[in-house]
Each structure stands twice: as structure tokens, then as C-alpha cells.
Design goal:
The chain has 3 helices and no strands. With about 90 residues, the protein is an all-alpha fold. Helix 1 runs antiparallel to helix 2. The longest helix has 24 residues. The mean pLDDT is about 85.
């Protein structure tokens, strides 16, 4: 396997994990979903630059922004979160 293929498999795994965590009903898991997503972004940049996929590069930049914003929102504004009857964050 070449480096590009290995990176694509890692991107697949991190993106699937990120999606599952971000969709979770638990605020703590959502936070870690954004962290996992942000950790996969350097590989997204490598793949898009290596394969000259410039429209995907724009999308990668947008996702990088949303991951940073998600981390910021879940850490900075966590004291204003709405909680359900069981005490879980919504």
C-alpha cells in the first residue's frame, strides 16, 4: 500500500468515528467527535493537495473551521448548556 491509500483509510476511520460521536446525545462525546474530526484534517489536506482536488480543499477548510468552532462551543459555552431531566446535555 502506498502512503495515499494508507491516509485514505485513516481518514475513513476518523471521519466515521467523528460522525458517530458528533451525532451522540451526550455533550462530552460530541466534544470528542470534533476533536477526532480535527485530528483527521491534516490527512484531508494532504490527500486533497496530493491529488489536486481543489474543490474538496475548500470543503476541507470549511470542515476544519466547523471542528474548531465545535470544540470552542463545547468548552467555552458549556456552562450555558441546556440539560435534560437526567442531567445529560442536549
Amino acid at each position: 500500500m502506498d502512503l495515499d491509500t494508507i491516509c485514505q483509510w485513516i481518514v475513513l476511520a476518523s471521519t466515521c468515528m467523528m460522525s458517530l460521536l458528533v451525532c451522540s446525545g451526550n455533550g462530552h462525546k460530541r466534544f470528542w467527535g470534533f476533536v477526532v474530526g480535527l485530528c483527521g484534517q491534516p490527512l484531508w489536506f494532504y490527500i486533497t493537495i496530493h491529488n489536486q482536488q481543489w474543490p474538496i480543499m475548500i470543503l476541507t477548510m470549511l470542515f476544519t473551521y466547523t471542528h474548531i468552532r465545535g470544540i470552542y462551543t463545547h468548552r467555552v459555552f458549556s456552562k450555558w448548556r441546556i440539560k435534560d431531566k437526567k442531567g445529560l446535555e442536549l
